[in-house]
Amino acid sequence: MTAYTVVVPTTGRDSLRTLLSALEHGIGPRPAEVVLVDDRPEPGDLPLPEMSVPVRVLRTGGRGPAAARNAGWRAAGTGWIAFLDDDVRPTADWPSRLHTDLAALPDDVAASQGRIVVPAPTGGRRPTDSERDTAGLATAEWITADMAYRREVLAAVGGFDERFPRAFREDADLALRVRQAGWRLKRGLRTTLHPARHGGFFASVRAQRGNADNALMRRKFGPQWRELVGERPGRLGRHTLTTLGGAAALGFGAAGKRSAAAAAGAVWLGLTAEFALRRILPGPMTPHEIAKMAVTSVLIPPAAACHRLAGEVRVRRPRPAAKAILFDRDDTLIRDEPYNNDPKLVRPVPGAEEVLRRLRAAGVPVGVVSNQSGVARGLITPEQLAAVNARVEELLGPFGTWQVCVHAEGDGCCCRKPKPGLVTRAALALGVRPRDCVVIGDIGADIEAARAAGARAVLVPTPRTREAEVAAARRDAAVAGDLAEAVGLAMGDRAW
């Protein structure tokens, strides 16, 4: 039987009781444990029914669903973590189908997504705007309303990125990082019901805060991020044009330029009317719904543009100095000698000793993350590898951690760069979070491993570094001319 833990982040909604009752009475293998993570700033009582399954409650104090899910899976002791939202209702056979979904997965599949069903409105009524929005979950990719991950994969990539403060994009971000690290994701056969959401009059306006999270997605994955998550282009361009049209109309009007104000106002009115009609016509056409769509269609474009601008500014702010620096070994700290098994051949790169001395004097933890497939290939013995690494420390001083992958490329391990295992294990050994680390290396695999783990990265190119790797690093990380400059970038000071 496949052992699994159910993790549910919650804000104490009454629907949590329905979810837990469905798990209690479900057909099939029961979870080893249900971990409820109360993420309210002021936690209170939770609506818990009588349960024969062990239930544990954790508190995260309003840090958001990403932090809540991280707390949940890290506390779990099983190989699989099944994430459910607190407003869903698994079908009666959900446990049995989950077991079937997971048991059939090969080792290179990291996760299984459940099938989300959003009930249609009763009585043949056409759905409201908020109901249509909820219905989109049925076709969304990799949402954690019902998503089961291998725990080892979550550990390898560092879990959810807690810079996503809302229940928005944090699940897509995790899935993309998992796929970048070399794993696959599959849809399962189990089904989970997700009731339609019914927000207040201005719920659609408040939802525009998610545009700030879109800025972080673009920063992390590039302009093609929507394509990567299986989405069509959004309306931000039109919203921005609408906002500019309205602002221009007001500005020209205040300046007494009536013709220009009229032209700009016509642009604003036309775009706003098109947006409102696009939302009104598929709906129930009740007076309340029409009024809500008309008012919010005026407010959404400037709200979307402002939140996106704030997000772009936030993600471009200089990040704080690294709390730990992780170095690749060959061609970063020492000259590369292919499959070196002789300590006498160890030669530090220029400046390495001075850079490391200054980092240690400043109290910055340092570590090494290195692929050494020569062991798997039979070209280096473990004893020879240890002797070479000991010589590195003899010449360059001690490192807080050595994380070395001795596997070959086809071994399917979780540690070989560009997978993130070495980075996440090094961060754990140094007592910091991966996001607070900077990885310095000489090839694209070093940069990709850092990104997959949620760390920052600096590339120091050598003659063997490919031009495409340098171009990618300039776009997604940073590029330095030598080791001293790389450390300066990591510490937030080019002249460090």
UniProtKB/TrEMBL annotation:
UniProt main location, coarse: cytoplasm
Keyword entries, A-Z: Carbohydrate metabolism, Cytoplasm, Hydrolase, Metal-binding
Glycosyltransferase 2-like domain sequence ranges: 5-125
Compartments it resides in: Cytoplasm
Source species, domain of life: Bacteria
Alphabetized NCBIfam families for the sequence: HAD-SF-IIIA, Histidinol-ppas
PANTHER family in alphabetical order: D-GLYCERO-BETA-D-MANNO-HEPTOSE-1,7-BISPHOSPHATE 7-PHOSPHATASE
Family statement: Belongs to the GmhB family.
Stated name of the protein: D,D-heptose 1,7-bisphosphate phosphatase
Biological source species: Amycolatopsis thermophila
